[in-house]
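Contributing new records

If you add data, match the layout below exactly. Sequence lines come first and carry their own label; structure lines follow with theirs. Keep one chain per record. Anything else will be rejected by the validation script.
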Amino acid sequence: MKNLFRLGALCVALAFPVSSVLAQTAAAPASKSQHAASRQMQQLQKDYLDALWRAQPDTAIWAGKFDHAAQQMIPDAAQRKRDLAFARSWLARFDQVNAAALPAAAQVDLALIQNQLHSEIWHLQENDEYRWNPSDYNLGWSLDKMLNTPYAPLEKRLQDISLRLAKAPAYYRAARANLHNPTPEHTELAIQQSSGVLQVFAEIGKQAKTAKLDAAASSLLQQRLAAARDALQDYTLSLRVLLARGEAKRSFRIGKEVYEKRFVRQIQSGLTGEETYQRALAAKEQMLTRMEKISDELWPKYMAGRDKPAQREAKIGLLIDELSKRHSKPENFVEDVRAQLPELTRWVLEKNLLGADASKPLQVRETPLYQRGVTTASIEAPGPFRPQDPTYYNVSPLTDLPPEQAESWLREYNYWILQILNIHEAIPGHYTQLVYANKSPSLIKTLFGNGTMIEGWAVYGELMMMESGYGGNTPEMWLMYSKWNLRAICNTILDYSVHVLGMTREQALDLLQRQAFQSEAEALGKWRRVQLTSVQLASYYSGFSAIHALREERRKSLGERFDLKQFHEEFLSYGSAPVPMIARLMREKAVK
């Protein structure tokens, strides 16, 4: 899973169909009026971004801008009012732009900005998550980013952090005042992650002791750290009290109306959540049919002498169980992830699938405590203003788990699946795509990236590698790839079924374990995740199917002129724009 922060999470569907706007300028050469409109648009978007960094310092930090990092916003009603006024004001200005006068690429930028602002307004006016999600109030990420990003000497960064910490008590007071009948699941997550934030506080104090701060600044920082720790502990205690008193009882299920609104805003595929769910059901059946054929082929090799069950899922499940015995050890898990990455890079280059940029470092690390509790692995990429900074591949260690639980995880991420996980998260998946995104000439397409495109590319990258012969084209590798791809399909089925159709825990675990062959640990983790998130799980299958369809369309259209590497690199050159927008820009480029 790509670790999406504020901008990535707030992308929305078009307020108007971009296809109709782009069609107006299909293959026409740029005119003087277009050049003038482009200059006007460029200036307006520059002014908007400059204002955005001042208004939303955390968003700026995500993007790699630290000019206003010392500012800590308080999440109270007054701040929400200011945020709403900001979004409305800028939306009005961008609505005045004559989209038809812009070149196609600039039209997409305009649409993305408008979508972002519409989404901000929707979240502030209609979505009351600030009332029911205590885990939204987490100072750990921004402080950790400031401490470990060399945007200034350590002493200056600590001074900025000190100014932020001065407002920590007010921040947590506002957070507690906002909460009204939160969900127990998000309340428990906030309590769990608070220990990770305390660890960030401790690291700040540790580094402060080695920094060259004057005595007064050092003393003030320590006082503010102590006050921040007290404030966080008071906030955490208040959450425990809410749980104990039964005052955190809101259902995590968001319901069909909100789900469909959120789906349109986040997925941007042109389909509804229900339509995508129905397609996923059909894709699940197709995948199971394929897996049964591979299982029949492998049965004599691994299950000789054992009766073959007549029931399809039972047969596939027994074979996957047998193969899953080959896996890493808890103490080697993180290192085994790290060791595979050079091999993936070599394969991508030798098979001429994509280029690589050795100057963009990828670092495997244990997931910070304040981020744990949702996913097993994730990518944390630098913002477009600091592309030279390392990308972190966060992997949750298994050494602190009970032996049975660790074994269950290891069977899920077995010898074959661990390779596919690394393809998805790193090369040529999230890491590679986000390196390309930071090189995109359109800053807007990178800043306001679409999570469905990002997750879809990672799933597509798995198929890309398999089609190129990765893993020796063995039936074992294809069976495990199919299991992994089935997981992406079932993510959509699970998400819609839980939040809209009321799927129970028992039904969810049956889907994940019996029908999708996931281990108990993975299934329980996914059940936890679907309670903590909504719609995001649907992005994998939706994005993958759109990218694959686009590739096959281009292959058919270009015939012998189709070049796979050229397709990949052109697709990635548009930043993280929604796939339908990228498709239209690629088609337009092809006819010029």
